[in-house]
Q: What sequence folds into this?
């Protein structure tokens, strides 16, 4: 796997690069700002971009904007965004394209090597991975519709889907059968009005609905 890193903190950038190297993942470019990310993506066509949300010059959302432009520049580019704080709208913006290969993690997750590496592989392989703290906040907020039509178990399954778990992993987490999870997922798609489509990823659309209305 070939990765581009965009992170303004020299220490964190070097730490991520070392961590990836230990997992035999090659960092083909490491930059400190969004412009550097776009240049690196254009030059190297990486398998994954790991991007800090807040970067120079204003330290607001330059990294996210650069990540979205990079996905336009290289359609389907998997992007794993790192943030210091939980900011749900960033996760929503990443997923709004309706495609997989996106992740949103708090920077503190990097310290958990196994969790971080799992997220890297999951996103690079076209999956989604949303930080569990984002999921927890959405669960606690309790906004109305359309998530209210789901049963508590279906909401639990959808929350695990948002974290990027496969049906098999969800079944293991909930100690239920694979068939039971498949039934819950089917019910979720049906209740949220997500019909099969060649143009949209239903799993991603369900997660996006959860993030927007959870």
A:
């Amino acid at each position: 796997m070939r990765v581009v890193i965009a992170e303004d903190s020299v220490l964190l950038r070097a730490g991520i690069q070392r961590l990836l190297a230990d997992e035999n993942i090659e960092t083909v470019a490491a930059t400190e700002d969004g412009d550097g990310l776009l240049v690196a993506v254009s030059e190297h066509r990486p398998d994954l971009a790991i991007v800090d949300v807040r970067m120079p010059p204003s330290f607001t959302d330059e990294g996210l904007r650069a990540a979205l432009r990079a996905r336009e520049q290289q359609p389907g580019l998997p992007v794993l965004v790192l943030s210091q704080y939980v900011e749900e709208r960033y996760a929503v913006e990443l997923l709004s394209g309706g495609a997989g290969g996106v992740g949103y993690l708090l920077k503190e997750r990097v310290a958990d090597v196994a969790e971080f590496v799992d997220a890297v592989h999951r996103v690079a392989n076209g999956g989604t991975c949303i930080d569990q703290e984002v999921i927890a906040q959405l669960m606690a907020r309790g906004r109305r519709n359309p998530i209210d039509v789901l049963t508590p178990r279906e909401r639990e399954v959808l929350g695990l889907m948002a974290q990027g778990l496969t049906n098999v992993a969800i079944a293991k987490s909930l100690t239920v059968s694979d068939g039971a999870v498949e039934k819950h997922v089917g019910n979720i798609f049906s209740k949220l009005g997500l019909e099969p489509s060649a143009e949209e990823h239903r799993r991603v659309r369900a997660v996006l609905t959860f993030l927007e209305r959870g």
Q: What stands out?
A: The radius of gyration is 17 Å. The chain is about 50% helix and 15% strand. The chain has two domains: 2-131, 142-213.
